[in-house]
């Protein structure tokens, strides 16, 4: 019976290639019925219908909508854009899932930072927190805090939860559009100093989540910390950008606050919650506080994850820059 129950996917109206949309496509390819939760009935919703998904139009912050969307579903994937109401939305979905009572899995798209932001670290004296986080930041962004609270809510709910804590995506705006201008001039300008990162391709995260949703039993109550396959510094990333763009690209390190003022503040002036998250992330990475690498993604996928270069080759903004 549960095999034919639709799998509920939130955030499904994201662009093609986005995590939720890719999960929808993968599950449909495997023959699973999918119910896609979207905010508006627009062209993206129609594209989901054409792909074979059932579309539910509603608001993740309205409990009546959430409950109606969940009806008949036993497997849930929860994701939501950066929002000051993120914890509210997770809590409402958890409340609806508890009320329904027959959930097989609740896959929660979380953040990699949750793997090292423990209660003990969060409640340490400010100077200790700052030192632990690299020296440029002492506290989480509101969005990072929201993910921490969301994980606690799901823990307390008793739902069969799987937390997917993905590292920074290759497709993150920090890497792919906030500083596109300098890339056009052959410069990768980022405020990350000499620190090394292993960013992850959104496609790989989607495939891992689809695998969990298709066969949840082995994953219940686990939290996965997922990185990309390559740990490299910004000079290495500059080589990747250069290979994809077909031109020489040189890494030019920038001071963190100068970069935030130059790129984040103007681009995200109308979205203060998102801007604060991005600025906190640059401080965390720029100070060396974004730590840890695992091979859990390779294990989940059963193959080598996509490289940064491979992910950039499929990114629309980067491809447009390359052909322009």
Automatic annotation (TrEMBL):
Record-linked InterPro entries: Ergot_Alk_Oxidoreductase, NAD(P)-bd_dom, NAD(P)-bd_dom_sf
Q: Which SUPFAM superfamilies match?
A: NAD(P)-binding Rossmann-fold domains
Where the record annotates domain NAD(P)-binding, the positions are 17-216
So which domain of life are we looking at? Bacteria
PANTHER family tied to this protein: PRESTALK A DIFFERENTIATION PROTEIN A, PTHR43162
What's this protein's name?
Answer: NmrA family NAD(P)-binding protein
Species annotation = Streptomyces camelliae
The root-end lineage is: Bacteria, Bacillati, Actinomycetota, Actinomycetes, Kitasatosporales
